[in-house]
Amino acid sequence: MSFLNKVVLVTGAGSGIGQAVSLQFAKYTARLSLVDKDEENLKKTGALCQKLIRAKVLTTVAELREEEDIKKAVANTKAEFGRIDIVVNCAGIYRPTSIFDSNLVELFDDVMATNLRSVVFLINCVANDLVETKGNIINITGEMRSLGAFKGIAYQTTIAALEHFTTSIALELAPKGVRVNSISPGVVKTNILDSAGVNSEESEAFWSKASSAPLNKLVKTEDIAEFVTFLASDKARAMTGCTYSIDAGLGLSRHL
Question: Has 94 been annotated as catalytic?
Answer without folding.
Answer: no
